[in-house]
Design a protein that fits this description.
Layout lengths: L1 E5 L6 H10 L3 E5 L2 H6 L2 E4 L5 H10 L3 H9 L4 E4 L1 H4 L4 E2 L13 E5 L10 E9 L14 E7 L1 E5 L5 E6 L3 E8 L2 E4 L7 H12 L3
């Protein structure tokens, strides 16, 4: 099985690729539309600023192929910024709209109440959608690794498959049909993260 990891100079791609290999699949790090189209599944990682990410995706002419592959029901996983890009818009963005694959926006954490922004470190991943295959075998007190200042606020709350709490409860895993998004970094989340990657590899 080949899993395309979209390389647009905004992601922790080599750690993601290693976790794919450990799970028994072949990672294909690429920004070529043909290779993305031929892959069995697709991962959009992301670290950095929303505007910069959208500019790079546009520069590489990857937006259309992302939409095409999502629309043909290919399993698709967005990680951290890559998940945020799936939504319509972000409070961080000054010039760019998101991909609009999931309806909603990305909003910034408030620094009130003594909370440090960005939200960085280990926190709970509380499963709320028991039928989400990405989270199969993940316990209610699972700990995952976060590094973000913004969080997703989907219009349809039913797409929230797991939550975390950082001054407020927010969706840390989104799921709609063949589309999955995680706000944390599974490639940095040790055994729990590897289980999530393995679940994605084994999705039918």
């Amino acid at each position: 099985m080949k899993i395309a990891i979209i390389d647009y100079c905004m992601g922790n791609i080599h750690s993601v690729a290693k976790s794919i290999q450990v799970s028994g699949a072949e990672p294909v790090i690429t920004n070529k539309k043909s290779e993305i189209s031929l892959a069995d599944k697709i991962i959009l990682p992301g670290v950095g600023a929303f505007d910069d990410a959208m500019v790079e995706l546009k520069k590489l002419d990857l937006i259309s192929v992302i939409h095409q592959q999502v629309n043909c029901k290919k399993p698709f996983l967005g990680i951290c910024l890559g998940m945020q890009l799936l939504l319509d818009a972000s409070q961080e963005a000054k010039i760019s709209r998101g991909l609009g694959i999931l309806k909603g926006q990305v909003v910034k954490f408030s620094s009130g109440g003594g909370l440090k922004v960005p939200h960085m470190g280990w926190n709970d991943c509380k499963v709320v959608a028991q039928d989400c295959l990405l989270l199969s075998g993940i316990s209610g007190n699972a700990q995952v690794y976060f590094c973000h200042s913004y969080y997703p606020q989907p219009s349809d709350k039913s797409v929230i498959a797991a939550t975390s709490d950082y001054g407020l409860e927010f969706g840390c895993v989104l799921h709609q049909d063949n589309i999955y998004g995680v706000q944390f970094h599974p490639e940095k989340s040790q055994a729990v993260g590897l289980k999530i990657i393995n679940n994605f590899v084994n999705l039918c």
